[in-house]
Design brief:
Number of strands: 3
Structural class: mainly alpha
Shape: elongated
Distance between the termini: 80 Å
Number of helices: 6
Largest sheet: 3 strands, antiparallel
Length: 158
């Protein structure tokens, strides 16, 4: 009897080892082990097929903590969510089959997506501030009293 076995070992990739040099100040501590985990699980090109639950379990965090870490990695432009269970590392830290592949991907990047710029820390803090403002706005809307529903039957009798 033959059993098909799916290998859990990711393909080896070439990458520059400067990923942690760009971690912004104020990043939640949960982001560090998550980034290391994603760097180790990536396919060539930086694609990672992993859910937040899997990341949380592997790293030993609660799901909300893992979600927050991934969110802040996104604010830092290091990781972006591509879909359910699909995250993509920035070409600046992603692994590729050859150094030439990585250089080509970096050249193709939009300048706004790069985190190797002098204003990196300010842009990260601005994204965090924008996110916090949106959260506070949503919370304020939830606290507003809800208008009672219109009594259509009562209106029809008049």
């Amino acid at each position: 009897m033959t059993i098909a076995v799916h290998s859990a070992v990711p393909e080896y990739v070439w990458t520059a080892n400067n990923a942690l040099a760009f971690i912004p100040r104020g990043m939640p501590p949960a982001a560090y082990p998550i980034l290391i985990h994603l760097l180790g699980r990536q396919e060539p090109g930086g694609r990672c097929l992993v859910t937040q639950d899997t990341v949380a379990q592997f790293v030993g965090l609660s799901r909300p903590m893992a979600s927050r870490g991934l969110q802040h990695l996104g604010f830092a432009q290091m990781v972006r969510k591509q879909g359910n269970g699909i995250y993509v590392l920035s070409p600046l830290i992603a692994g590729y089959r050859t150094p030439a592949d990585q250089l080509a991907a970096i050249e193709a990047m939009n300048d706004d997506d790069r985190f190797d710029r002098p204003d990196f820390q300010e842009r990260y803090e601005h994204r965090v501030t924008q996110h916090d403002a949106k959260r506070q706005e949503k919370a304020a809307r939830r606290r507003q009293p809800v208008e009672p529903p219109i009594q259509l039957a009562a209106r029809r009798k008049h």
